[in-house]
UniProtKB/TrEMBL annotation:
<dbReference type="InterPro" id="IPR036188">
    <property type="entry name" value="FAD/NAD-bd_sf"/>
</dbReference>
<dbReference type="Pfam" id="PF01494">
    <property type="entry name" value="FAD_binding_3"/>
</dbReference>
<keyword id="KW-0285">Flavoprotein</keyword>
<dbReference type="Pfam" id="PF21274">
    <property type="entry name" value="Rng_hyd_C"/>
</dbReference>
<dbReference type="InterPro" id="IPR050641">
    <property type="entry name" value="RIFMO-like"/>
</dbReference>
<dbReference type="GO" id="GO:0016709">
    <property type="term" value="F:oxidoreductase activity, acting on paired donors, with incorporation or reduction of molecular oxygen, NAD(P)H as one donor, and incorporation of one atom of oxygen"/>
</dbReference>
<keyword id="KW-0560">Oxidoreductase</keyword>
<dbReference type="GO" id="GO:0071949">
    <property type="term" value="F:FAD binding"/>
</dbReference>
<protein>
    <submittedName>
        <fullName>2-polyprenyl-6-methoxyphenol hydroxylase-like FAD-dependent oxidoreductase</fullName>
    </submittedName>
</protein>
<dbReference type="InterPro" id="IPR002938">
    <property type="entry name" value="FAD-bd"/>
</dbReference>
<keyword id="KW-0274">FAD</keyword>
<feature type="domain" description="FAD-binding">
    <location>
        <begin position="10"/>
        <end position="345"/>
    </location>
</feature>
<keyword id="KW-0503">Monooxygenase</keyword>
Length: 501
């Protein structure tokens, strides 16, 4: 649902990658005037990030673009463990709307997001580079250079969002420390053609020599990721050759699957970095500008989209006057711990996959065997799906354990029709889900008549066990549980700290 009302406050988003496009389109769809700039003259044509987790698909569904991502990508429901038997971990065990991942190149993802941004009226300008920004009272003064003519324009904005990547100019100008470590191992990624592709199509193997993973791309090519212990000392500037890739594949996978053309390749060293703060007054950091880590587990893009979903509705609400200004502090309080935990998990996973020597391989073997234990298997699958992330800071003493979490897949009744939660969330309103709770519904509908925010009321059809008879839960516009219970006064108190009267 696109708002026809344009708010006079102006927002500048720096960086037109997936995160910048997502937050810009989300804001613009809610009636906020947004300029989006990127120093690149055109969008990326390489696959780079290439997977969307189940929880990310839920966020995209609430933005009504998940179906298009699925149509352009490849559905992937089984994650290979990497052992000799080809064992996999299944996302189908999770009670999610999308019990699978979607393999889709970043270029495709950016294309879908760009179409959405253009549709809702984002003012996207490529070949424009941010040079400086200076907070001045309630405004942020920026200087933007046109990269071809080198002409510089000075503009005032009300808000600036930095989604401009690992080398963020926004973060550097604000002098926000980007703390972490550099890995000394060099890794290889490439897009290739295979004459005899593996079965199953998503294929991985981890042995004493290292790890190789193969992922099919929608155009029939393959993304290959290589962690070869015998080549990790090579300098990143050394070109990646076809012979090197074929050798690593044969040594680790046992064959090269008819390796054909190398369409694109890169050798790189990963970094683990986390910004000390995500906000400086009316300036925010999102995505890789705020956090970066090794690609183990494929969580980088997922966290960036999560940042956009978390900040977008809050900033729109504050600008429109429907939410209290202080709630913008919750962006960092909620998202930074998620990034910190992801950095820890990916660091352990990377060291797990690259552990050298007999002791290292023994640790690796024990870890692989441990995933056969149902509890550990489910925990790993939930992490890969993004389902384990939760906002602990939202939970207060006596709260239900689901506060701060996303709900499982629900079937709801809205206006006499069955609906999914992500469909209801497209209205960008708080959602009250109840199980035969007329007193709660009446009281909270009356409450929302006295505040600037709006409420959508739905009744749960299944699973009924989520809510006892007479209970209800309030879900934020980003799908996070704000409150769950039957105490009307408690529900109103919780809302009082968020909505503006």
């Amino acid at each position: 649902m696109t708002s026809n009302i344009r708010i006079t406050q102006r927002v500048l988003v720096v960086g037109a990658g997936p995160v910048g496009l997502a937050v810009a389109a989300s804001l613009c769809e809610q009636g906020i005037s947004v300029d989006l700039i990127d120093k690149r003259p055109s969008a990326s044509l390489h696959s780079r990030a290439f997977g969307l987790e189940p929880i990310t698909l839920e966020l995209l569904s609430a933005w009504h673009i998940a179906d298009e991502m699925i149509r352009r990508g490849i559905v992937w429901a089984e994650a290979p463990v990497g052992d000799k038997k080809g064992r996999t971990l299944s996302f189908s065990t999770l009670a999610l709307e999308f019990p699978y991942m979607v393999i889709i190149p970043q270029s495709y993802t950016e294309s879908v997001l760009t179409e959405w941004a253009n549709k809702v009226g984002v003012n996207l300008k490529r070949g424009m580079e941010l040079k400086t920004l200076t907070p001045m009272g309630e405004k942020v003064v920026v200087k933007i250079e046109e990269t071809q003519s080198h002409s510089v324009t000075k503009i005032e904005y009300d808000w600036v969002l930095g989604a401009d990547g690992v080398n963020s100019i926004v973060r550097q100008v604000l002098d926000i420390p980007f703390v972490g470590q550099d890995y000394q191992h060099s890794l290889v990624v490439a897009d290739v053609t295979l004459n005899t592709p593996p079965t199953p199509a998503v294929y991985a193997r981890s042995v004493s020599r290292g790890l190789v993973a193969l992922f099919p791309l929608p155009d029939g090519t393959y993304r290959i990721s290589i962690e070869d212990n015998q080549r990790m000392d090579l300098p990143v500037k050394q070109p990646v050759t076809r012979e090197e890739i074929a050798n690593s594949m044969s040594a680790i996978l046992g064959q090269d699957f008819g390796l054909g053309d190398i369409l694109w390749s890169a050798r790189y060293r990963s970094k683990q970095r986390l910004a000390e703060r995500y906000r400086e007054g009316k300036i925010f950091l999102l995505g890789d500008a705020a956090h970066t880590h090794v690609p183990a587990g494929g969580q980088g893009l997922q966290m960036g989209i999560g940042d956009a979903a978390n900040l977008g509705w809050k900033l729109a609400g504050v600008i429109q006057g429907t939410l209290l200004p202080d709630i913008l502090d919750s962006y960092e309080n909620e998202r930074r711990p998620i990034a910190k935990a992801a950095l820890k998990n990916t660091d352990l996973l990377f060291k797990f996959n690259t552990a050298p020597g007999i002791l290292g391989r023994m640790v690796h073997w024990i870890g692989v065997q441990a995933t056969k234990i149902p509890y550990i298997e489910k925990k790993v699958v939930r992490m890969l799906a993004g389902e384990d992330a939760q906002y602990h800071c939202l939970r207060q003493k006596g709260d239900h354990k689901r506060v701060g979490q996303r709900l499982p897949h629900l079937v709801l009744c809205h206006a006499g029709q069955e609906r999914k939660l992500t469909e209801v969330l497209r209205k960008k309103q708080f959602v009250l889900i109840h199980n035969h709770a007329p007193r709660l519904v009446s009281a909270l509908q009356s409450y929302f008549q006295t505040v600037a925010q709006q409420l959508t009321v739905v009744e749960i059809i299944s699973p009924k066990k989520l809510l006892r008879d007479g209970q209800a839960t309030i879900v934020r516009p980003d799908g996070i549980v704000l409150w769950l219970g039957s105490d009307i006064a408690q529900a109103k108190t919780r809302l009082d700290s968020w909505v503006n009267r």
